[in-house]
Amino acid sequence: MNLRWLNALLWGNSVALAWMWGLGLFFSVQISFMYGMRGLLMFAIPNAIGLMLFGWLTQIVANKHQGGQESLALFFDKFAKPFRLIFYIYQIVALSLTVFALVKYLFVPLLATFDGFSGSAVVALAVTMAVFVLLAVGCLFGEEFGIRKIKVGHALLGVLLLACIVTVLCSLSPLTAGDGILGLGKDYEYTETRFWGLAVPLVVGLLVGPWLDLQHWQRAIQMHREKTSIRLSYVFGGLIFFGLLMFHGYLAMWVMGNARDSVELVASKLDKLYYGHHLVVQYFTKGFSGSSWIPTAYFGFLIICVLTTLDSGYVSLKWFLEKNVEKSENMLLSIIPKQIVSSPIPTFVVVAIVTLSGYFAKFEVEYFMVFYASFFVGYAALAIARCFVPNSQQPLPQIRMFSMACLCLVIFSFGYMIDQNVLLYVGSLLPLAYVVWLVTTTDLLRLVTEKAGQVINAAAEIPAFKAISKQEPVTQTEVAAPASGGGHDLYGHFEGKWFVYSMVATYQDTNSVGNVYFGMYPLYVGKTRELFFNAAMPDFDLKTTKFYILTRSFEHKFVRETREFDTITVKIKVAEANRKFCTLEHQIFGAEGQLLGKGKQSLLFVSSKDYGLLDIPSEVYTAFMKYL
Fold first, then answer.
1. Which helix (H) or strand (E) segment is 557 a member of?
2. Mean of the pLDDT values across residues 16-37?
3. Beta carbons of 297 and 168 less than 8 angstroms apart
């Protein structure tokens, strides 16, 4: 039992360090600069509660699904599929924000203390090098630990972090913050209204934020595999994280109360607001001699927090990309070597580009935060709903959700720039309202559809309705409409990307009651498939070919029946392909265009010499690409 508590504590420490990214690390200083202790508590409390709620609720998800220790992993495989792109974008923004914050608020102020780094070109080169060094170290740490060992690595770093915190606190007489606990909002034109304008978006974004973070899902899955309480681990994590936020925020208030005159604050050229993220860094940079350990301890605190975020991001991205590349059947992804697609390094390059773009555009960390207060809110809320609300398990309306997210992002950003709280509220709360509407209307539509179907089926049994709906038998002249040119299309034809072939069911196709025998439909599809191959690859020669095309699997759903002398039309097309396999989709229609059935089949390719499995041959790619 004690080992379980220890394991939960180790995981809790890792959760806290992974969540101590640029947003929590430097915005805790900014919110303390603006509004003092009440601002810090407004930021820290929902942040910690959001972590704890994630652990509490994912424990429920893990327990209510079957699969034992793998129940949460199996659930996540299905749950994450429609959110894959959003998970990926979320990680890019989070990692970019973290690197951006450390470079702008720590590295650049440190550069200013050296005489040799005064020119803009030199500073730009130094900043670029710092970004890539940070990302390289994050990759190195990520490769070194992995998810099974990361809690141990973070435990060691956590001990070092605690030593840094104790060193700073013992050296500064922390109980003498003075009027710094009130903040400096009034002195720098921060009004009471802006406080409430930030409060609502922060609370909303922080409570739902962890649900789109791959780092937390990967940790929760690993905890469940180790039979460690997810709930307890995240309680520990929330408490540790709350303590880290309070330390950094209170340190900013101490600096404001004791060294206000030594800090230079410059208004942003974009929104004319004053920012104090570098407040503590600037104080430690200028206020101590070179032999003091206090700045080193504080800077070590910042670097450890960032590195534990970057290595966690690397590990979670590697896990996520490998899972999705392995299951993907996208033809474009299959062309790129798997080692490149599944590696987090290309993503880290994107992070570097985003970070440098933000720095040279003179952004502040708040401009990245806008995504978490508006853009991601709807997706996170829908993710929570899909975990616990049964009727929300419908296909994700990707275009509508993305459009709503972009709309809320623009509304929130505009409201932030012109200091209009109403727009901030709309940008944060509109995604929640839309998700509620989406879930409730989906449930209502499903209910209406089910009831309507029951009513129609019941009405169909009434004799009067049977007489009205009874159809005259279809004659052969009505269904045997000649093809263009007056002749039957013996080899089929293409209609867009669909290959179409028609045939007439005869006596040998039927069973004892006159319906077409169920086993004939796969034969119809098989014949159409061969004609499609012939049309797509007319030069294919079975005697000289280097590969054979084999059927890997076949699925068919029967919708309705047809009878002798009815015209049957089969449509088939290339649905998707990956490196090894190709999927064909088919539909079968009756004489009057009614759907008789549909399905799909998976093809594989083997060597004609030894039947060894091959990648999709280039001839097939060339032939099939234009029909995909």
1. strand 547-558
2. 88
3. yes
Number of DSSP helices (H) and strands (E) in the chain, helices first = 22, 6
- Distance (Å, rounded) from C-alpha 208 to C-alpha 220? 16
Asked if domains 2-443 and 478-625 share a fold, the reply is no
Between vectors from CA 311 to CA 310 and to CA 315, what angle results, nearest 5°?
120
pLDDT top residue among 105 and 470:
105
| Residues linked to residue 582 through DSSP beta bridges, in sequence order | 577, 603
- Amino acid identity of residue 471, one-letter, is Q
> Could you give the percent of the chain with pLDDT greater than 70?
84
Q: What is the pLDDT of residue 476?
A: 36
- 599: its two tokens: 């399905």
**Domain edges within the chain:** 2-443, 478-625
Query: Position of tokens 């994590």?
Result: 237
Residues 167-211 pLDDT 10s: 988 887 777 777 778 877 555 555 667 788 888 898 998 898 899
Average pLDDT over the chain reads 83
Predicted confidence band at 472 (pLDDT cuts at 50, 70, 90)?
very low
* Arch. (CATH architecture) of 2-443: Up-down Bundle (1.20)
Q: How far is CA 509 from CA 492, 520, 562, 568, 572, in A?
A: 20, 6, 10, 12, 21
For CA atoms 481, 486, 491, 494, the dihedral sign is: negative
Regarding beta strands 498-504 and 567-577, do their DSSP bridges make them parallel or antiparallel, or are they unpaired? antiparallel
Distance CA 137, CA 309 (A): 11
DSSP codes of every residue in 66-134: SSGGGHHHHHHHHHTGGGHHHHHHHHHHHHHHHHHHHIIIIIHHHHTTSTT--SHHHHHHHHHHHHHHH
Distances in Å between the Cα of 90 and the Cα atoms of 46, 112, 328 are: 19, 32, 20
- Does domain 478-625 correspond to CATH entry 3.10.129.10? yes
CA triple 89-95-96, angle to 5 deg: 85
**Alpha-carbon distance 543 to 560, whole Å?**
40
Q: Using DSSP, state whether 587 is helix, strand or coil.
A: strand
CB hemisphere CA count around 547 (13 angstroms): 16
